[in-house]
Amino acid sequence: MNCIIVDDEATSRLVINQLCSQVGGLEIDGEFSNAIQAIKHLNQNEVDLIFLDIHMPDFTGFDFIQTLKNPPKIVLITSDTQFAIDAFEYDCIVDYMVKPIALPRFLKAVKKVESAILSNEPVQESTSTKSTKKESVASGKDLYVNIDRRLVKINIPDIYLIEAKGDYIQIKTEAKNYVVHSTLKKIEDKLPDDLFLKVHRSYVINIKMIIDIEDNSVLIKKDVVPVSRSNRPELMKRLNLL
Amino acid sequence: MEKPNIDYIKELAGGDKDFEKKLIAIMIDEFPTEKEKYYNSLELEDDKFIIEIVHKLKHKISILGLKKSYEIAVEYENNLRAGNSDLEKEFKETLSVMTQFLASL
């Protein structure tokens, strides 16, 4: 996880830095003594987590959060307990640590963040959420899916079929099939329009992988996938027909 | 009065002597400035800033293992927010103890 530290107190930044170094998987992208510097950094860089002090001169931690359009996960660090209730009003705030912070408490916060990332975003791109779908294909970006609390990378163009199965979806690639707790709608939003098409309420296909089409079904690899009447015109429109 | 210690710093360092030295150096560097700001804001009777700087100093009080003094600082901050300066004398004593301790490191 990429993280930044925003705290006007150098002592506090060093303490958090040290705690991060004692926990695997945390990489510090930057340390900032004021919110303005941090906002500038966030305008150009994507981070997964912010360790944020509430009490800073001129610009409080809460003011800072309100300037962020898509805030990453945030762990508040403060010498106060009185702001805990305010913290719960923000979805992005995962935990609230009172200084001085000991390693066990810090570990607990990091675990909360990991859980929050896994449970809130079961299917997510590893890349900037600002990327367009077309950009993600052109640059060969991947899709990360949550399987057994691990984020597993799938190369998007390798996916040939996605099938809805109740509360789960099955993602099929040539090499492997993945069962993920998610919905067809969520994954559809993450896939490039020029490559994928919903042909049935339970199926999204990679149109480049079609072998043949017969009446109301398409053959993709070894799978015969039904095509609903309402989706057929769009499928036909997308094909390079002779 | 209770004595400051570097138990928390050692615990945090986990044997990393460089970190210990670095944190103590930053404390030695940062604390006098904050203390000076506190006294200046008292002179200027800048209540908002007094509260802010007392709040900041609480962290350093806790880092040096001054548990009772930390409680006093919390109470003092609450008093300041309520508009009175009770425990100011005790808070100043804490700052004085910290100054001596940091000078001895």
What does this structure look like?
The complex is a heterodimer of chains A (about 240) and B (about 100). Chain A folds into 2 domains: about 1-120, 3-Layer(aba) Sandwich (Rossmann fold); about 125-240, LytTr DNA-binding domain (OB fold (Dihydrolipoamide Acetyltransferase, E2P)). Helix content of chain A is about 30%, strand content about 35%. Chain A has 8 helices and 16 strands. In chain A, strands 2-1-3-4-5 form a 5-stranded parallel beta sheet, sandwiched between helices. In chain A, strands 11-10-9-13-12 form a 5-stranded antiparallel beta sheet. In chain A, strand 10 (about 170-175) and strand 11 (about 175-180) form a beta hairpin. Chain B has a single domain, classed as Four Helix Bundle (Hemerythrin (Met), subunit A) (Up-down Bundle). Chain B has 5 helices and no strands. Chain B starts with 6 loop residues before the first helix and ends with a helix. Chain B has helices at about 5-15, 15-45, 45-65, 65-80, 90-105. The interface of A and B includes residues 9, 22 and 103 of A. Chain B: This is Hpt domain-containing protein. Chain B: InterPro entries: HPT_dom_sf, Sig_transdc_His_kin_Hpt_dom. Chain B: It comes from Wenyingzhuangia marina. Chain B: One of its GO terms (biological process) is phosphorelay signal transduction system.
Choose one word for the global shape of chain A.
Answer: elongated
Secondary-structure element order of chain A, N to C: EHEHEHEHEHEHEEEEEHEEEEEH
Q: Report the CATH C-level class of chain B.
A: Mainly Alpha
The name of the CATH superfamily of the largest domain in chain A reads: Response regulator
Which protein chains are joined by the largest interface, and how many residues does each one contribute?
A-B, 18 and 21 residues
Classify the beta-strand content of chain B into a percent band. Answer: under 5%
SS class of chain B: mainly alpha
Structural domain count of chain B = 1
Residue share in helix of chain B: over 70%
Radius of gyration of chain A: 22 Å
Structural class of chain A: alpha/beta
Shape of chain B: elongated
The main pleated sheet of chain B reads as: none
Number of strands of chain B: 0
Q: What is the radius of gyration of chain B?
A: 14 Å
Low-confidence stretches of chain A: 122-139
Q: What's the assembly state of these chains? A: heterodimer
